[in-house]
């Protein structure tokens, strides 16, 4: 069973490509963003409100919280093809992911980076916000938060690229290409 990390800045198309892999290759999409949003909408969650505030600002939710949520799922989904979307987001999380997989005698097959030009990305994000009705937007879908998320990505998540390169499992796809071409490139890597 394959275990793959999708890496890329906010707005690079990670969500779209994860969905493609789910539909096309029966992958299970494990998105920490979705797991955290489940917590914020669950009134019984001890940390829901705290998580909500952090996400609204575009900061990273504390490692302990995210790691607990994800480890539980990794064990449950041991025998599935998994696409990790939005996790890991820093080196600590990358190390924990490796350890957790090792504990169940598994390892990552690839870390696929959807590479984009940051200037064009900011433009894309501005357009996306202008085109989306207010009521359809996520709480963290505004210019200020998105620019903050890009900054958080550059500081925390970017170093992971080097981490996976050293392990020999990093693969790059050109995220400025069309959605279909990016999907095809990802398929070639996985198959
Ligand atoms: P996108 O896919 O648009 O980049 P996500 O849904 O993955 O956004 O993440 C939204 C927010 O959830 C992040 O800005 C962050 O606050 C929080 N978050 C998601 N994944 C993690 C993670 N692995 N570690 C810490 N915070 C996270």
Describe this structure in words.
By secondary structure, this protein is α/β, with parallel strands linked by helices. The chain has a single domain (3-190), classed as P-loop containing nucleotide triphosphate hydrolases (Rossmann fold, 3-Layer(aba) Sandwich). The chain is 58% helix and 13% strand. Strands 2-3-1-4-5 form a 5-stranded parallel sheet. Helix 2 crosses helix 3 (48-57). The protein starts with a strand and ends with a helix. The mean pLDDT is 92.
State the gist of this model.
This protein is of the alpha/beta class and 191 residues long. It has 8 helices and 5 strands; from the N terminus they run βαβαααβαβααβα.
Q: Note the run of SSEs as H and E.
A: EHEHHHEHEHHEH
- Class inferred from helices and paired strands: alpha/beta
CA-based shape = globular
The Rg value, from CA coordinates, equals 16 Å
Strand order of the largest sheet: 2-3-1-4-5
N-to-C span: 12 Å
CATH architecture heading = 3-Layer(aba) Sandwich
Total beta strand runs: 5
Quaternary structure annotation: single chain
What number of structural domains do the residues give?
Answer: 1
Instruction: List ligands, each type once.
Output: adenosine-5'-diphosphate
Q: Which regions contain 5 or more consecutive residues with pLDDT less than 50? A: none
The number of helical segments is: 8
CATH fold naming: Rossmann fold
Q: Which CATH C-level class is it? A: Alpha Beta
